[in-house]
Amino acid sequence: MSTIHCRIITPHGVYKEMDTTILNVETLSGARGILPNHVPVVTMLKIGRMSTVENEERIEYAIAGGLLYFRDNNAEILTDAIESKDEINVDRAVAAKMRAEKRLSSGRPNLDQERAEAALKRAINRIKIKGN
């Protein structure tokens, strides 16, 4: 069976390399499933769920957006942050959600609204994925 070799890179280095039979991602234009021998693609990823099938087991990840490059059954994902469902610390995610909500409701004039909203989306995504 054909597979996709996937390499996930964060600012801290290579997070993971694996072979998968399908790569499911959420792009800015909607959900996309990539199978072996898919046409080449470069697309932006949104904060959301990513899943793979590794060794016949579905693995889910919370991804903080990024870029996907796929060609010749090789996928590279560049992202600021990614965690597998098993790695997510739900208490930490809930605390991050509360901090982001507090910042957004503070009414501070120097608040970086876009950054606070992104932090809230990432926290909610992590909570949602851990819960499923």
Key attributes of the depicted protein:
Single alpha-helices involved in coiled-coils or other helix-helix interfaces; 132 residues; 2 domains; ATP Synthase, domain 1; eight-stranded mixed beta sheet
Explained architecture:
- It contains two helices and eight strands; from the N terminus they run ββββββββαα.
- Helix 1 (90-105) runs antiparallel to helix 2 (113-131).
- The mean pLDDT is 93.
- 27% of the residues lie in helices and 47% in strands.
- Strands 1, 2, 3, 4, 5, 6, 7 and 8 form an eight-stranded mixed β-sheet that branches.
- The chain is an alpha+beta fold and 132 residues long.
- A hairpin with a 2-residue loop joins strand 6 and strand 7.
Low-confidence stretches: none
Task: Tally the helices.
Answer: 2
| Average pLDDT over all residues | 93
Note the overall shape. elongated
What is the rounded distance between the termini? 29 Å
CATH architecture of the largest domain: Sandwich
Question: How much helical structure, as a percent, in the residues?
Answer: 25-40%
Q: How many domains is the backbone divided into?
A: 2
- Tell me the β content: over 45%
CATH topology of the largest domain: ATP Synthase, domain 1
Give the CATH superfamily of the largest domain: F0F1 ATP synthase delta/epsilon subunit, N-terminal
Q: Determine the structural class based on helices, strands and strand pairing.
A: alpha+beta
Can you tell me the CATH class of the largest domain?
A: Mainly Beta
* Number of beta strands: 8
The major pleated sheet works out as:
8 strands, mixed
Tell me the radius of gyration. Answer: 16 Å
H-E order: EEEEEEEEHH
